[in-house]
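hey m, so remember when u said the tokens were messed up on ur end? i reran from scratch. heres the input so u can diff it against urs
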Amino acid sequence: MKIKKVFTIIMLAACTYVAAQNTGTPAGNKTFFVSKAGTLVSMLTEDEANSITHLTLTGKLNAIDFKHLRDEFKNLQVLDISNASISTYAGKGGTFPDRFYIYPPNCVPAYAFCRQTSDSTFTGKSTLQKVILSEKIKNIEDAAFKGCENLKICQVRKKTAPNLLPEALADSITAIFVPLGSSDSYRAKKHWDTFAVIEGEPVEAFVQVGLMGSLASELVEAGLQPKDVNFLTVEGKLDAADFILIRDYMPNLVAIDLSNCNATAIPEYTFTQKKYLLRIQLPKGLKSIGQRAFSGCGRLCGTLVLPAGVTAIEYGAFMGCDNLRHVVATGNKITTLGDNLFGDGKSKLIYK
């Protein structure tokens, strides 16, 4: 018997509507109309604010509202302000640390989700995973999302790129989703050019596979085309056919989690030239990485931790991964180490 379980989250505005029809709106999903800027906090208690994970706001907001969103709403994961306007505010009650500040209209305020915790330390809102911004947005101001280490999606409804000010977003963490036909506007504008900019709605899929070679059929049965998937988590059994699917038919991957699949090898060229790929979690039982498996993944960043059982890394496995700081070997079992792993004559492989 084939055993399978597929959970798919298509991150569209319509998704909430479908869920509400079938099971009722989840307790953590709330929508508020804010008729007067600066009054969001008066509309709910502290406990109610802390129970919200997905929040949609319409009406009028200002920097006071953003300060409450930042400092309260302890479990906020998704914020949709695509149908809200942002009003001018001048005063000390906004997000800028301890000073009078003039916040311009229709701009995500400076330090909107980054709070000063000491004289020299700033902490981003760690719960925040996705934000949807209006077509009216003019600027994303200084340090607006600085330190938001889990903000994987910033979706902007505007077809022409707004101004992106210093430290507003981290290109190593956040992928940018924009309207169809507008990616060139973003890539051509200062500060946006280093981001993974993808047209359309972000799509996330979580798949449990009970039969090898069936990843494609599982996705299609769930109503998804592999080419559309941006965030993929796979558990269960994968074989060579599944890795070919990932290699040849999933060009828009931003993140992939294989930690709970059975694979012991990443075949050669599997992730070559995945230009949007920011992060990957490798199978826990991984033993080998094929030649040029990640070559040309120029946005793969940070530190990649290898499972302790890895024994072989083949030629040029990380060639062209210019933003990858280190590859950390957690075991001492690597017996086969190919030449030119990183393609730049420098070794980023360290043992821990």
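this time it looks ok to me. Confidence is low (pLDDT under 50) at residues 1-24. if urs says something different then somethings off w ur setup not the seq
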